[in-house]
Amino acid sequence: MTAVPPTNPAAKAPAKPLASPDQFFAVDIRVGRITEVEAFPEARRPAWKLTVDFGPIGTLRTSAQVTNYSREDLLGRAVVGAVNLGAKRIAGFKSEFLVLGAQDDDGTIHLLDPGTVACPGDVVC
């Protein structure tokens, strides 16, 4: 059986330059739980507005192009997010963190799953 080459440009991208451990560990990656999911019709690409509880860090909001998940699939789901990258405005919406996922060959994003034992605010290390 011959492997099918990836069609996603991100999958074909070369490795990024080396980063120091200090650069990597400067990113605060935490477990959160989605508490609200709203439609985001103003976004250029289909997306959801997510509100996520990060425990002691508080509640943060983000825009995520994960419309392969239904509102019901997302609500209550545990996710992984980079919470200290600063806010960014997306179509007038203040996105406060980056939710993390893996992109497959067709460009679909699959959210990282921290498992059932991790709690909001847990540090990903």
Protein described:
This protein has 125 residues and is mainly β. Helix content is 10%, strand content 34%. The strands form three sheets. Strands 3-2-1-4-7 form a five-stranded antiparallel beta sheet, with no helix packed on it. A two-stranded antiparallel sheet has the order 5-6. A two-stranded antiparallel ribbon has the order 8-9. The protein has three helices and nine strands. The protein has helices at 9-12, 21-25, 71-74; strands at residues 29-39, 48-53, 59-64, 78-82, 88-90, 93-95, 98-99, 101-103, 109-111. The radius of gyration is 16 Å and the shape is globular.
Summarize the structure.
With 125 residues, the protein is mainly beta. It has helices spanning 9-12, 21-25, 71-74; strands spanning 29-39, 48-53, 59-64, 78-82, 88-90, 93-95, 98-99, 101-103, 109-111. A hairpin with a 2-residue loop joins strand 5 (88-90) and strand 6.
Descriptive labels:
125 residues; mainly beta; 5-stranded antiparallel beta sheet; two-stranded antiparallel sheet; 10% helix; 34% strand; globular
What characterizes the major β-sheet?
5 strands, antiparallel
Oligomeric state as shown: single chain
Q: What is the N-to-C succession of helices and strands?
A: HHEEEHEEEEEE
How much helicity do the residues have?
10-25%
Structural class: mainly beta
* Apparent shape: globular
Low-confidence residue ranges: 1-5
The fraction of residues assigned to DSSP E strands is 25-35%
Distance between the termini: 37 Å
Q: Could you give the count of β-strands?
A: 9
Total helical segments: 3
In the sheet with the most strands, the strands line up as 3-2-1-4-7
Mean pLDDT score: 92
- The Cα radius of gyration reads 16 Å
